[in-house]
Amino acid sequence: MRRLGKRLYRLFVFGFIAALAYSLWLRQYAPGLWRQKLDPMSFGLIVAFVLFSAAQLYFHHFRYRDVKLEQIDSMDGEAFEHFCGYLLKRNGYKHIEVTQYSGDQGIDIIAQKKGQKFGIQCKRYSGFVGNKAVQEVWAGKEFYKLDQAIVLTNSEFSDSAQELAEQLGVTLIDRNGLRRLMRRLPG
């Protein structure tokens, strides 16, 4: 599906370039009957491309503008994973890949930063996050052969989860850490 979207986008870009070239340079060489059809088509294609590009810009750079922790608390799990991916990107992580929603082996996001690969598990909870999340992300780190594992939550971690994470070398980012990461969001 993603590959099809990229192909359609390339075709759309090619159509935009062709419409622009027609409008700026080739229109004078077109016969009068052709102009009657090509002028509105090229104008429509250029307008559609500009509107689509503006929507993409908004979606990729401003969709979480001014988001508050209360809004994050009401997100569903999948929306929270995508938000975390966006948040990681804003905090210097590269090559961010949100894994499939189910069957992800304990890793919701794979990202790179400073030459290391990170596996991140995102937990949008209302209570304490326990040992299970730490165990899952650690197992996922081994499964995907990653360098580091992180559990990121909008909540807090239980004492036993903190103790286990320290033993396994798993980084925990709680609500306060999430708040610090959110400082990089557009405001």
Overall CATH class of the largest domain: Alpha Beta
N-to-C CA distance: 33 Å
Write down the Rg. Answer: 23 Å
In oligomeric terms, what are we looking at? single chain
Task: Please mark out the parts with pLDDT under 50 across 5 or more consecutive residues, or reply none.
Answer: none
Spatial arrangement of strands, main beta sheet:
1-2-3-5-7
CATH topology of the largest domain: Trna Endonuclease, Chain: A, domain 1
The structure class reads alpha/beta
Total separate domains: 2
Nearest-integer average pLDDT: 90
| Total DSSP helices | 7
Instruction: Report the sheet with the most strands, covering strand number, pairing sense and barrel closure.
Output: 5 strands, mixed
Order of helices and strands: HHHHEEEEHEEHEH
- Determine the fraction of residues in helical runs and give it as a percent range: 55-70%
Organism: Lacticaseibacillus saniviri JCM 17471 = DSM 24301
Transmembrane segments: 7-26, 41-59
Keywords: Endonuclease, Hydrolase, Membrane, Nuclease, Transmembrane, Transmembrane helix
GO molecular function: DNA binding; restriction endodeoxyribonuclease activity
